[in-house]
Design goal:
9 helices, mainly alpha, Tetracycline Repressor, domain 2
């Protein structure tokens, strides 16, 4: 099987685990849509699967964000909303492991927001941790809305930015 097959399978697994962190390996084999033997060749056990999935998600999200951030916050948010299943998996996994939300993806997104806020002459009207947690929830909401309503990712990102501008920031309206 090719690298593309691996990427597609692991993305489906991330989506399944973001929706149900307790999914069994049997369920994940079915979700991956690959032969059982291939699944177990790639992932010897659940711990191996989770390690590879964690690494794969972070590498892919970081790479996508690094390409998008120079184009501004809208481009970065578009990446995150499009990759909603991966973002959700990363945050669900971190909560289950009781890990701090400080990770490279959060740092890149936070920096993009700071740059955007400065350009828009906006100030944070809430504590930083509240802002970060709220933005995470809004990214998830934008992804779910895009998935369930048929709205474009771009429309959902614009709604997300409007919500942030009017709900979490002081300044220009």
């Amino acid at each position: 099987m090719s690298r593309t097959d691996f990427d597609a399978a692991i993305e489906r697994i991330a989506l399944a685990l973001s929706r149900n962190p307790g999914s069994t390996l049997r369920e994940l084999v079915d979700v991956a849509q690959i032969p059982r033997a291939t699944f177990y060749r790639w992932f010897s056990d659940r711990e191996s699967l989770e390690r590879q999935l964690d690494l794969w998600c972070m590498i892919n999200l970081e790479a996508s964000l690094e390409r998008a951030v120079p184009d501004g916050l809208t481009a970065a948010l578009t990446v995150l909303v499009d990759a909603g299943a991966l973002v959700r998996y990363v945050y669900v996994r971190r909560e289950l492991l009781a890990e701090a939300p400080d990770d490279p993806v959060a740092r890149v997104v936070t920096q993009a927001f700071i740059t955007w806020a400065q350009a828009e002459k906006l100030e944070f009207s809430a504590p930083e941790l509240w802002f970060v947690e709220s933005v995470d929830a809004l990214i998830y909401a934008a992804w779910r809305y895009s998935e369930n309503s048929g709205q474009s990712t771009e429309d959902c990102v614009q709604l997300l930015l409007k919500t942030i501008r009017h709900g979490l920031m002081n300044g220009a309206s």
